[in-house]
From TrEMBL:
GO terms for molecular function: diguanylate cyclase activity. This is diguanylate cyclase. Its EC number is 2.7.7.65. It comes from Shewanella algicola. Its cofactor is Mg(2+). The lineage of its organism: Bacteria, Pseudomonadati, Pseudomonadota, Gammaproteobacteria, Alteromonadales. It catalyses: 2 GTP = 3',3'-c-di-GMP + 2 diphosphate.
Amino acid sequence: MTPSVFAFAEAAISATSQSNPMIRYCVDPDWLPYEAIIDGRHTGISSDYLNLLADYTNLRFELVPTSSWRQSLELLQQGECELTPILNQTPKRDEYLSFSDVFFKSPNVLVSLKTQPFLQGFEHIGQRTLAIPKDYRLVEYIQQFYPHINTMLAKTEREGLEKVANGDVDVFVGSMFSVNAYIQQHGLTSLKIAGWGGPEDELRVGVIHAKKGLLQQINAGLAKITHADHIAIYKKWHNITVVEDIDYSLVFQVIGALGLFILFLLYRTVCVTKYNFHLTENNKELQKLQHELERKNNDLDFLAQHDPLTKLYNRHYFNQTFLNDERAYGNDRVSLVIIDIDFFKAINDMHGHVVGDKILVQVAQVLQASVRDGDVVARWGGEEFVIVCQHVDIQGAKELCQRIAQELQDFSFDNNIKVTCSFGIAMLGENEAIQLCFERADMALLQAKRTGRNRYCCA
Ligand SMILES: Nc1nc2c(ncn2[C@@H]2O[C@H](COP(=O)(O)OP(=O)(O)OP(=O)(O)O)[C@@H](O)[C@H]2O)c(=O)[nH]1
C-alpha cells in the first residue's frame, strides 16, 4: 500500500467521531463476481454486502487498495487492514483473523476440458494434475485430506483456468460462481464443469483479532439482511460481464467495416441498406442467445445428472446411461449392486431428518471410497443406491459388498449411529437387457431384507 493511502485513511479517521470510526478493509482485487478492484473502486458481491452492513449498522468502511489477494492477506496480518468482507475460515487464517457468521454459500467445482470424463470428486482425480489458486482455502483442504494429489498452485483462478484450457494441467478447482463468470467472459468453450470439488465455500466477514469486538455488530447487521436483499445480489452478479477485457481494437475494426458496408449499401439503395442492417442486428442477437443457451445447457446437464445432497449421480443419469442403453455388452462382464440402508426410518424418527441427511451423505462417501475408478455409484432415491461395476463377475461383486459392509462397520457416523445395509447383486447375462438384470438385483435385495438384513443376496 502507498503512504498516501494511509494518510488519507488517517485523515478520514480523525474527521469522524470515536463512536463511529472508519474501518480499513482489504479485498481480493481479482475474484469476480465475489469482489474486485476496478479503477480503484471496490466492486462485486462483497461490495454490495458491505453497503448493506453500513446501512444496517453504524459502521463505516474505507478500502485500502491492493494489487493481489496475497498482499491483502499480508496487510491483514500486519494490522494495516482491519477487515476483509468475504472469505472462508481456515485454521491458518484463524491465527490472525476472527470470523463472523456465514452469510454466503457457494459450491466448488472441478473444471476440465470437454474431452475429459466427468469426475465424482477428488477421490477420482487419480494421476491427473490439479490446479488450485494459491492462498485459497482449498490449498489447505487438499493438503490435509488428499495429500497424494498432484497439485499445481496457480497465481489466480484466471491462471488456473487458462492452464486447463491450454492443456498444461488436467483439472482446476474453484468457486462455481467465479469459474462460471470467467468461462463466459472469455468464451472458453473448450472447458466444462466436470464435477463437485470439496466442501462448499462458506463465506464470512473476517476481522483482525484486535478488532474482534466489531463482530457482535457485524453479526447483528448480517442477521438483518433480508431474503430479498440476498436474492437481489445473487441476480445482479450471476451473469456478470467485465468491460475492461473487451478488445477495443477489434471493436473499432468491426465498427469501421460495418460503417463502410452500410455506406456502400446506402449508395446502392436505401431500402437494401435498411434490410441488411436489420439482418445483421438479428444475427448478432441470435448468436448471443445461442451462446447463452449453450452455457445454460452445460450447467443444467451437470445439475440434472447429480443428486444435490450426496453429490452422487442421480436416478435420471442412471436411467439415461444404463437403463435406456440399447448397447449389447457382449462378453464384457457387468454386475449391478443395489444397496438399501437398514431401518433408516428409525434413524430419522430417533435423531431427526437433519441427522438422517448427514447419514445419507456419509454412506455415499463410504460407497464412493470403496469402488474402483470406472465404477458408477448413483443415488437411486431415498435411502437406496446403485453401483454398476464393469469387468466384474458375481464373485467380484460379493467381495465389493463385503468390503462396503466392513467399511460401514468401521466408519464413525454422526451421533455414533450404527449403520448397516442390505445388498442385491446380479450379473448381466449374455444378451440380457440391463433393465431385466436390474429387476433381478432388486429381487435379490428384497430377499436380503426378508432374511434378516445386513447381508447380500445374489440373483
Ligand atoms: N433424512 C432423509 N430421509 C429420507 C430421505 N429420503 C427418504 N427418507 C426416509 O427414508 C425412510 C425409508 O423408510 P423405509 O422405506 O420404511 O425403510 P427402512 O426404515 O430403511 O427399513 P428397511 O429398508 O426395511 O430396512 C422413510 O422414512 C423416508 O422418509 C432423505 O433424503 N433424507
